[in-house]
Design brief:
This protein has two domains: 246 residues, Aldehyde Dehydrogenase, Chain A, domain 1 (3-Layer(aba) Sandwich), CATH 3.40.605.10; 194 residues, Aldehyde Dehydrogenase, Chain A, domain 2 (3-Layer(aba) Sandwich), CATH 3.40.309.10. 40% of the residues lie in helices and 21% in strands. It has 15 helices and 23 strands. The strands form six sheets. The chain has a seven-stranded mixed beta sheet with strand order 15-16-17-14-13-19-20, sandwiched between helices. Strands 10-9-8-11-12-22 form a six-stranded mixed beta sheet, with helices on both faces. A three-stranded mixed beta sheet has the order 1-5-4, with helices on one face. Helix 1 packs across helix 7 and helix 2 packs antiparallel against helix 5. The longest helix is centred in the N-terminal third of the chain and has 25 residues. The protein is globular and about 75 Å long. It binds NADPH dihydro-nicotinamide-adenine-dinucleotide phosphate. The site of NADPH dihydro-nicotinamide-adenine-dinucleotide phosphate has 26 residues, from helix 7 and helix 8.
Length: 482
């Protein structure tokens, strides 16, 4: 049993202001694997005060000093990737192979791309009019991260704060505190000055809200549901903070008949089910040209039926459980709605998959599910399900495909498969989303990640990720009084 009863504040592990413990459960069995302390406003005040004091000196460090610290952070991260992966598997149920190769690895991938972006970043530039612009760290940053890609999200927020000379207070999801604790240890080991990075465990309503409202916090960066992102914006409004948000998605996957349809459909189904469907940019709405629709349904059904659901502790390319009871119940309720609203159940359905080992039968495993012939009036068309549930619908023309793809309040990613490059460019231009995947290829670490419409604002990763954490200052070139 792991006990996380301390917060990392001002370079030390300190006891919370008031003891309040919560169990940490592992999704594959629902067994308790640890306890975590939940903080309150007093803990937030302490962490923000430490962060504010550290900003005085850390904001004055040189780019070379900050690059040296980031490179040390990369070295210690590499040494503990295995620990991060094991923690992620335990706390949120990603299978061991995926935890190591994708989840933990993303922390390093983003860090290395931020190092490259900072190396290339000019902290001052001269405008065509001769004035000089400098990019300066924004101040104390409040960072709130979710449970679905815990290390990925921490790296996307903590690293740009540290890279630009800002300081920060992190509130990870209290349900995934194990990897967050390791991340704090990495920062400590890398040698960051006390107060530059602080970690407070706690829930959104108390710690998250106290951070968002705090007058000494200059910006909030949040990833999670659109509902909570909107609450962070409201809380931050009174103190005019910058707020960047990475929220939900209902990403379309448009498949034209002129591509390798079998490959595009199989890959689309697997990507939707990856991380048990708990990725904000998962391609959850597959739109297929009618001439190949029947074939696509056949490939999709076979791919879903071949998707293995199993113990996350075991290596392999299977998918694991959903994250917790609430998530399981939400997904079951959406499957129920799909059944009631008249779409066709192509694969999966309600309940747990058949053949689960006995010790997993108390875990939050769901059946890889596909609904076909889904129409825009249905809940499963509109709502983010955040589970292994794909919807499929046919289209007749390119214009219709684009209209169907854009028929969502979200705009995070969009996926596209076609053999025609001119069409790929034309359709990409008209899809209202922050990132386009073409023929199975996504953009790499260091490229901007973020959404249009209600998927959020701001961009994370690389050069664009740094920009959210800087203020712009302008001055004329120096000259004596005339
Ligand atoms: P939430 O958005 O509620 O939680 C994400 C983080 O925000 C957690 O740390 C949470 O703390 C915190 N939080 C919640 N409310 C507030 C608030 N008012 N002020 C500040 N912080 C807050 O996600 P859930 O875990 O409830 O998942 C619900 C749905 O959100 C999912 O089904 C999915 O659709 C979507 N989601 C999207 C993610 C993404 O990557 N875009 C990630 C996770 C979820 P606490 O745990 O205490 O609530």
């Amino acid at each position: 049993m792991i006990t996380l009863d301390k917060f990392y504040i001002n370079g030390e592990w300190v006891a919370p202001a008031a003891p309040k413990m919560m169990p940490v459960l592992t999704p594959s069995t629902n067994a308790q694997v640890g306890t975590v302390a939940l903080g309150n406003e007093v803990d937030v005040d302490r962490a923000v005060a430490a962060s504010k004091a550290a900003f005085e000196t850390f904001s004055m460090t040189t780019k070379a000093e900050r690059l040296a610290l980031l490179r040390r952070l990369a070295d210690v991260t590499k040494a503990r990737l295995g620990d991060l992966a094991a923690a992620i598997t335990m706390e949120m149920g990603a299978p061991a192979t995926m935890s190591r190769e994708s989840q933990a690895q993303s922390g390093l991938g983003h860090l290395e791309s931020f190092i490259a972006a900072l190396e290339a970043h000019d902290e001052e530039e001269t405008l065509p009019n001769g004035d000089i612009v400098s990019y300066e760290p924004i101040g104390v940053c409040g960072l709130i991260t979710p449970w679905n890609w815990p290390v990925n999200q921490i790296a996307l927020k903590v690293v740009p704060a540290l890279a630009t000379g800002s300081t920060c207070v992190l509130k990870p999801s209290e349900h995934t505190p194990l990897s967050a604790r390791i991340y704090a240890e990495l920062i400590h080991e890398a040698g960051y000055p006390a107060g530059v990075f602080n970690l407070v465990f706690g829930d959104g309503i108390s710690v998250g809200s106290a951070l968002s409202k705090h007058p000494d916090v200059a910006m909030m960066s949040f990833t999670g549901s659109t509902r909570a992102g909107s609450a962070v914006s409201r809380d931050a409004a009174a103190t005019i903070k910058r707020v960047t948000l990475e929220l939900g998605g209902k990403s379309p996957n448009v498949i034209f008949a002129d591509c390798d349809v079998d490959a595009a459909v199989a890959e689309g189904v697997s990507s939707c089910f990856d991380n048990t469907g708990q990725s904000c940019n998962a391609p959850t709405k597959m739109l297929v040209e009618r001439s190949v629709y029947a074939r696509a349904l056949d490939v999709a059904r076979k791919t879903a039926e071949a998707t293995k659901v199993d113990d996350p502790m075991v290596e392999g390319d299977h998918i694991g459980p959903l994250f917790d009871r609430l998530q399981y119940e939400r997904v079951q309720a959406m499957i129920q709605k799909g059944l009631e609203e008249g779409s066709t159940l192509l694969a999966g359905g309600l309940g747990r998959p058949d053949g689960l080992a006995k010790h997993l039968q108390t875990g939050w495993f769901a059946r890889p599910t596909i609904f076909s012939d889904v129409t825009p009036d249905m809940s499963v068309w509109r709502e983010e399900i955040f589970g292994p549930v794909l919807i499929i619908a046919p289209f007749d023309t390119e214009d219709e495909a684009i209209a169907m793809a854009n028929d969502t309040e979200y705009g995070l990613d969009a996926y596209l498969s076609t053999g025609d490059e001119a069409r790929a460019m034309r359709v990409s231009r008209r899809l209202r989303a922050g990132g386009i995947h073409i023929n199975g290829r996504a953009s790499d670490y260091g490229s901007p990640f973020g959404g249009f419409k209600q998927s959020g604002n701001g961009r994370e990763g690389g050069k664009f990720g740094l920009e959210d954490y800087v203020e712009v200052k302008v001055r004329p070139p120096f000259a004596q009084w005339p």
